[in-house]
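Render this sequence as a predicted structure.
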Amino acid sequence: MTSSDVVLFEVRGRSALITLNRPEARNAVNTELAEAVDAAIDRFEADADLWTAVLAGNGPVFCAGADLKAVASGNVQLGTKDGGFGGFVIKQRTKPVIAAVDGPALAGGCEIALACDMIVASTQSRFGLPEVKRSLVAAAGGLARLPRRLPPNIAMEMILTGDPLSAERAATMGLVNRLCEPGESIETALALADQINVNAPLAVRASRQLALDTPAMPDREAIAVASKTLGQLAQTADYQEGPRAFIEKRPPNWVGR
């Protein structure tokens, strides 16, 4: 394990475990944490042997959002140029990231979780955008992403009341992919990552990007884009390996190229 003190980076097989490590501050985002998250995602993306990542928080809170003490002291740089708030919410990446939430994910913390591709949460977790309670708006993607992940009327209730949603209710509505017992969110998220990692990594990345890019397109356009992507995959070694492994009745040996 290596550490930047405020963000830990650990390799778990084909997955990176990235942990926010400011438990004394409820993992609130300051300049140092944002820059460290940005660097951790760059490291993950650059490592050909890592195919998925799990983003977690150390301590009883996933992330409480912006570090208000830092803001009050005049430090309002809570993001990075490439990643936005927390070094993450607008970070361009190609590989899947799963949030492992074991406690409150509020304000900017909820927005960081929403920026992940999937969410695993323990029963002691809750999600909320309480900004209206402080005459603020959730400006790090929550107002756009939450209505896409929940029924719009439920998202609107959360946004306008500022009240949190329990993990159990979030799971019934599809915001949470896996619900687990307290203390088990990281291992549950890593198990989900392993389910992804048995698949061809280039196909996973291409499918992820298509799922993000094409839902608003007309069907004909979306199919054309997907067909073009498939043609590009056909030039890779893994494209040949998949059918070969099926015929030979063995697990495929993906090489990521």
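Summary. The two ends are 27 Å apart (CA to CA). The longest helix spans residues 31-46.
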